[in-house]
Write a structure and sequence with these properties.
By secondary structure, the chain is of the alpha/beta class. Helices cover 51% and strands 16% of the residues. Strands 1, 2, 3, 4, 5, 6, 7, 8 and 9 form a nine-stranded mixed beta sheet that branches.
């Protein structure tokens, strides 16, 4: 499916990345049939990314790396450039440089937003390009299989209405992660809606092959949860309170109870058994929602419980940064 020239002129694409190599060119080429205006925002690449992008005629914005990098700042700078040059833009497609846009996505997403003025964002199915390359890639693919319908948030790949984006002043530059759900929270406060439509959106190359990468990715999510709670926890929604509470319970309170009771009571065994019980409970819930094998679901739910521990380290990192008055720095996992 190919968009008309008029429709393409209303869509701008913001690609962000660093040292993405061939994946970046694949990403940009997948956009060129659907968006007339494309900007690539580079965050200090040391490979030939910038030169390669310029060779295919795409404008490049290089971030000032003396300022702490965040994906949020990269997306905002790309959007700011496009919107200052092309006033006719109606939608912005945000996409990470390690992703490839799927052929039917832009037409379907654009049509949905055209027909539903109260929706700010359309997102779809992001898939892992190499799910069999590692167990961690496979976990990402399962994680991205979110329910179709109205959603509380989107991820980094999404088609966003310019009017809505401007209304909330885009992403928060200071968030090192979780900038998409936080912006979606503000959009929803203004009455906007987010929709996950039943359409293939992007292929993503997570490239997670080591336990340390999985750990850092989880640590970053813990940092994002508590930072978002710090910003909006007092709202009627108590934004991200459940996530932060869950991490503290499973990674701190229950282990403390086990240690305290180990030498004085058999109740410590009860607390230990809470972990497998929770894994089984969550697996049974997902069997009604996702069409995949029990073994994969068990792997996913086990990973979610184990991830509470690196997530807790992310929470503590945020707390220490607040005490010291330090800005958060990007937690990289690849």
């Amino acid at each position: 499916m190919i968009l008309s020239t008029h429709a393409m002129s209303q869509i701008g694409a913001v690609v962000i990345g660093r040292n993405e190599g061939k994946r970046l060119i694949t990403c940009i080429e997948s956009l060129m049939k659907f968006a007339k205006y494309i900007i690539y925002v580079d965050s200090g690449s040391t490979d030939d990314s910038i030169e390669a992008v310029k060779k295919i005629g795409i404008r490049v914005v290089s971030l000032d790396m003396s300022i702490p990098f965040t994906a949020a700042r990269a997306r905002n700078e790309g959007a700011s450039y496009l919107l200052s040059k092309h006033l006719e833009l109606k939608y912005l497609q945000f996409i990470d440089g390690d992703c490839e846009l799927q052929a039917n996505w832009m037409v379907s997403a654009g049509q949905f937003l055209d027909e539903n003025d109260n929706y700010a964002i359309a997102c779809g199915r992001r898939r892992e390009r190499f799910p069999d390359k590692s167990v961690y890639n496979q976990l990402c693919d399962i994680e991205w299989n979110t329910p179709v319908g109205d959603a509380l948030a989107c991820g980094g790949d999404a088609l966003i209405r310019v009017k809505a984006y401007k209304e909330v002043n885009g992403y928060r530059n200071d968030l090192i992660a979780g900038e998409e759900p936080e912006m979606c929270f503000r959009l929803r406060r203004y009455g906007w809606k987010i929709r996950r439509i039943d359409v293939e959106m992007t292929l993503h190359d997570a490239a997670i092959t080591k336990l340390s990468q999985w750990w850092n990715r989880a640590k970053r999510s813990g940092y994002a949860y508590v930072h978002s709670y710090y910003l909006h926890g007092n709202s009627a929604e108590h934004f991200k309170f459940k996530e932060v509470r869950s991490i503290i319970i499973w990674a701190l309170l229950i282990p403390m109870a086990i240690v305290v009771l180990t030498f004085s009571s058999l109740f410590s065994l009860v607390f230990i058994l809470l972990y497998p019980a929770q894994i089984i409970k969550n697996t049974l819930k997902l069997t009604r929602l996702k069409s995949m094998s029990i073994s994969l679901l068990l792997l996913f739910t086990t990973s979610n419980i184990l991830a509470k521990f690196p997530q807790f380290t992310g929470i503590m990192m945020f707390v220490f940064n607040q005490i010291k008055g330090k800005e958060g720095r990007l937690i990289e996992y690849k």
